Predict the structure.
Amino acid sequence: MMQPKKINYKKIKKGKLSRMDFKANKLSFGEAGLKAAESGVIRSKQLEAARQAISRKIRKKGKVWIRVFPDLPVTAKPSESRMGGGKGATSHWVARVKTGTIIFELICSDSTVVDVALKTGGAKLPVKTKLCYINK
């Protein structure tokens, strides 16, 4: 499970998620990528599941880069606890993803495996995704 090693504040306010991203919307490392088609939050376990699915499909024919990192703590209070008593303990970590953000990048010697691997990884994520390529 991915989470930061060191943080400044244990508990952070949710804030609002803006709609579009124009900074991280181009491929930097690989030849193909998985791009978010909608905004949302992705848990660290979901990111890890998608990474494992992609890695299993490409085996040792390629390399995978993860472009987002879950650095936002989400807190939860125990169920059936009374009102008050402050904010709950950190439950899990999430990554905010805007529309157009590249989530995964991939380079692989076998081009037929790339589509299958990225579609399988995209199925593990809670946001809609689409494939993007450097050449096309």
